Amino acid sequence: MASKPFHLAWFLGNSFGVHGWKDPWGGRTALDWASPSLQIDLARAAERACMDFVFFEDSVFVPDNYGSSMDFYLKRALRAPKNDPMPLVPLVAQATRHIGIIPTISTSFYPPYLLARLMATLDLMSEGRVGCNFVTSTAARAAQNFGLDEHIDHDTRYEMADEFVEVVKKLWTSWDADAIVADEERAVFAEPGKVRTIDFEGRFFKSRGPLNTARPPQGTPVLAQAGGSPQGRAFAARHMDVVIAAVSTVQEMKAYRQDLRQRAARNGRDPDHIKVMFQVMPLFGDTDQQAREHLARHRAGQDPAKMLAAMGSLFDIDFSTFDLDAPLAELTTNGQQGTLKRFLSYGRTLREIAGNFTFGLENIAGTPESVASQLAELMEEVGGDGFVIAGPMTRRYIAEVTDGLAAVLQRRGLTRERYTHRHFRDHLMEF
Ligand SMILES: Cc1cc2nc3c(=O)[nH]c(=O)nc-3n(C[C@H](O)[C@H](O)[C@H](O)COP(=O)(O)O)c2cc1C
After folding, report:
1. How many domains, the chain?
2. Residue ranges, the chain, pLDDT below 70
3. I want to staple 62 with a disulfide (CB 3.0 to 4.6 A). Which of 80, 120, 262, 322 is the partner?
């Protein structure tokens, strides 16, 4: 491998929802969206490409922001229907041998004990291959599904998230790694002295412990998050092994990574132990010209209303009531603050923003060879740590990335060519 390889993984937005509906390469989505076969095919292909992990986004509400109605979203299968991604984890684990698997959970609504037990079980079942994406859940409708009339405010949600992670980490270590001796002669399965209560009592959570299953093989499953506000970054810098960053310029990439590394160092952590992976949606063609035309068609074909409906559901804002051509007043949200700040920086009016905004690195197109060069240049400039692929999900696209792009990256020694460790975290921390 070359001296400076980078990490590659897959971020599956809309997770266990409807993919490729109306896409000419979408297969029989209408019939089989609820089958796990696409996600399993994705994981197998990503493992063939020796990626670090597959990441399953999630949300727990049906949006009704745009036009103050669910209609727009339901008609287009936009964010609903969406199955719970947790049952995908053991299926993907069974269909693969090495790749890491990261489902998403909400720190605002999951009881920490249940989550700690679930992730410990999955880490034990997969022999050390799972991680967990901690989100605070941003939508008022999600909060209402869990019995709250109004959502907890943004900063308090992060304070809860912080305490949540503290509790689950304590639960995961409530059994020593060598607590299970299974000593038949002494008739001792687990050593009682190696299992302890945690007696946690914080501002938001209380848990006695110990966990009623053993310590996960990784000790702590891989911890991941994606929030970009100052509170989100502080949370990441305290706990996370990997952060998914949605930014769209090389300057933003550099600044994001530098900021997180500095914050981690201020917390006494080794900055190399927090990996920043940038969201990228490369599009491909047989020639660069063809790929650029593909990208231009893709952008021109995007429906501004769909983009505003999707973004509005992240901010709890109904953009259908706005004049597209009027200068925008300052907007605030109790939802995704980091994303709203970036969104508003893309123009003076909603029409300008809808035309220009990109969630991640969305302007990369070419042959597999030339996309590989573009990614390599970005990494050279930024210094690490890698990319998560988040392009339009079809089996054709999976093949373009894993058999096209990833094969070139591997040939050039830019990404991993084989898995050399047992556990997910060890692969993540390998370089
Ligand atoms: C790339 C990316 C992926 C995300 N994935 C999820 C997700 O799966 N589920 C979710 O509820 N929020 C998700 N979020 C939202 C973040 O976890 C976070 O809650 C949100 O960005 C608000 O945090 P902020 O105010 O710190 O920006 C994602 C955000 C980004 C940028």
Report:
1. 2
2. 1-3
3. 80
Give the integer Cα–Cα distance in Å for 375 and 373: 5
CB-neighbour burial class of residue 192 (10 A; exposed 0-12, middle 13-18, buried 19+)? exposed
Confidence at residue 1, expressed as pLDDT on a 0 to 100 scale: 44
Give 249 Cα–ligand 1 centroid separation in angstroms.
19
Question: 91 CA to middle of ligand 1, Å?
Answer: 25
Q: What angle do CA 123, 225, 198 make, to 5 degrees?
A: 55
Is 138 labelled a binding residue? Answer: no
**Placement of tokens 């969406």 in the chain:** 82
In DSSP terms, which residues pair with 328 in a beta bridge?
none
- Cα distances (Å, whole numbers) of residue 211 to 112, 121, 148: 11, 11, 28
> Is 384 inside any structural domain?
yes
Model pLDDT, residue 2? 45
Instruction: Give the three-class secondary structure for 7.
Output: strand
pLDDT for position 3:
52
Which residue has 């502080």 as its token pair?
234
Instruction: Look up the domain containing 112 and give its range.
Output: 7-173+205-289+360-428
Does residue 416 sit in the same domain as residue 338?
A: no
173 annotated ligand binder = no
Residue 2 CA, ligand 1 centroid: distance in Å: 33
Closest CA to 337 of 159, 155, 132, 143: 155
User: How many CB atoms lie under 10 A from the CB of residue 325?
Assistant: 10
